[in-house]
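re: that chain from earlier
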Amino acid sequence: MKAIIYVRVSTKKEEQETSLLRQEEELVLLARRYNMEIVKVIREQESGYTVERDGVLEMLDSIKKDGANVVLIQDETRLGRGNAKIALMHCLRKEGVKVYTHNYNGELQLSDADSMVLDIISMVEEYQRKIHNLKIKRGMKRAVMHGFHPEENLKNQNINSGRDKKEVPIEEIVRLRQNKLTFAEIAATLRGFGYDVSKATVHRRYVEYANEQKP
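^ sequence. v structure.
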């Protein structure tokens, strides 16, 4: 297993550095006990009530880059407190990352309340994905009903890579807008056909086009 050691104290007082060092030493021993490879050590002096921490971002980045699948912490409060802790636990769970703590001398055992909250969050996210996909399908159906023919009008339709489909068909944006589709529906429709565009991009292109048409 590849492990990230994450140690945190809440203030930037000099005496807190001793606590950081102690946490790190204890977690190095924990990693050795479970034959883990330490790929990164992250030290942070920030409040646990916020997720806006450089160390947290570094941790999530290391999970992707270094293939870490375990995070070692002294106890669950080191990861965060309140909503921040739940949010970070959810992120780690989605990435398939386990959390080991010095206090448990092994894998963290969540309380029933925390486990229930994480299950609810996962359930809500799944429904959000379903709703998002339904909105795309609805936008595509409305676009086709109003005369949108992707096989005739969209360029690069045979290219699978989204990066090759950055060009936005302004003619279709204008026509669909004239047919009363919202910018969000237009963006969802174009994404369904492989165009990597957001509602803001569609709106911006439409405004630019409208300004160009002014005398």
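Confidence is low (pLDDT under 50) at residues 154-166.
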